[in-house]
Amino acid sequence: MELRHLRYFVTVAEELHFSRAAEKLNIGQPPLSMQIRALEEELGVALFERSRRRVFLTAAGRTFLARARQILADADAARREVQQIAGLDAGELRIAFTTSAPMTNLMKRVLTAYRQRYPRVTLTLSESPSERQRDALTERTLDIGLLRQAEDAPPMSGLHFETLIDEALVVVLHQGHALAHRESLSIADLANEAFIMHPPDVGTAVDGKIRRMCERAGFAPRVVQEARESTTIVALAASGLGVAVLPEAVRCIQIEGVRFRALSEPDAHTPLLLAKRRDDTSPLVQAFAAMCREVAGQLDATSQQAD
């Protein structure tokens, strides 16, 4: 039994509605239901009575609710106490992120959880290309980078990189496009298409990867339009101006007329990395990195359960 199981249980008990509780916890309803059932199996008792319309606490559930609330309150009090000792009750953390990172479930959940756990820490957030993030970390004007590393990027001995999630790449195109009816596409299918990409000075690792994939398929992408923001690229593709290849997180951008299609190449994916200085021992930095690992692990476990 973990503290998160108790938080899940208390939220469902307070809402008496799995969908509302899942929304409040920022997780999917099926994984939440599975976690509650697993908790009931571990305890050997039913905590809820379920019907098509309502959810009720059982007698055991009502007793367990009081205990769970007390355990969570004690845990929060202990956390605040050690945070004060470790210097986590104040300060500033400077975080930069690549353009598609805020669209990922990982970044959204990490920021929410970090603010809840360390409410007195100021998070200074900025959007920045991956190349500039590496420079800023080296220059000590940045504490944490959430970036995508180019395959041919020169090594930087003073920085530490770790993969948080590995995102699939998807093709973005207009719903009336001749390829839109296909469930998946190969990069070779796009040989004669007009591409929409970021400008070269943005320095995105994704665009470099796309160009290399195109080269291996025997062509160079014909770029007809450039845009600095991923949301703009999706909107332009939805208008029929061309096609784009972007990280899967852009699926959350729901614009009329847009379609997202998977790429079939085995290497059609791009990792989102956490970058920090190797010699940075700041408790704020270490806590944020640990939070990223924690959330990434939860997302991976949820994905495996869904599979």
TrEMBL record:
Sorted alphabetically, the Gene Ontology cellular component annotations on this record are:
protein-DNA complex
List the Gene Ontology MF annotations in alphabetical order.
DNA binding; DNA-binding transcription factor activity
Secretion signal span:
none
Location of the HTH lysR-type domain: 1-58
- Keywords tagged on the record: DNA-binding, Transcription, Transcription regulation
Q: Which domain of life is it from?
A: Bacteria
- Its family? Belongs to the LysR transcriptional regulatory family.
Know the name of this protein?
Answer: Hca operon transcriptional activator
Gene of origin? hcaR_5
